[in-house]
């Protein structure tokens, strides 16, 4: 995996993980302020969630990188197989 694709994969993992982490520990305010949404969390703890998201994303990225580096997941192989299938479909027409 190249640097650019590694960064793109990390960003994708980070965002998906963020959306999974955001609901952790959310408790609605017991006495909402007028004009405030009733379901708004009392303490969103965003810094802790961003840190947790980053740590989880680093671990997940390392797993994905290891799988790609060990050729367990090979996008080049998938592309080659798809090209072969396309050629076979064209020959059968």
SSE arrangement, N to C:
HHH
Strand content: under 5%
How confident is the prediction overall: mean pLDDT? Answer: 86
Q: Helicity level, as a percent range? A: 55-70%
Q: Report the count of strand segments.
A: 0
Radius of gyration, in Å, reads: 22 Å
Largest sheet: none
User: Structural class, please?
Assistant: mainly alpha
End-to-end Cα distance: 37 Å
Described by the principal axes of the CA atoms, the overall outline is elongated
Low-confidence stretches: none
Number of helices: 3
**Total domain units:** 1
Tell me what the structure shows.
The protein has helices spanning 3-21, 46-69, 75-92. By secondary structure, it is mainly α. The protein has one domain (3-92). Helix 1 (3-21) crosses helix 2. The longest helix has 24 residues, at 46-69. The chain starts with a helix and ends with a helix. The model has no long low-confidence stretch (mean pLDDT 86).
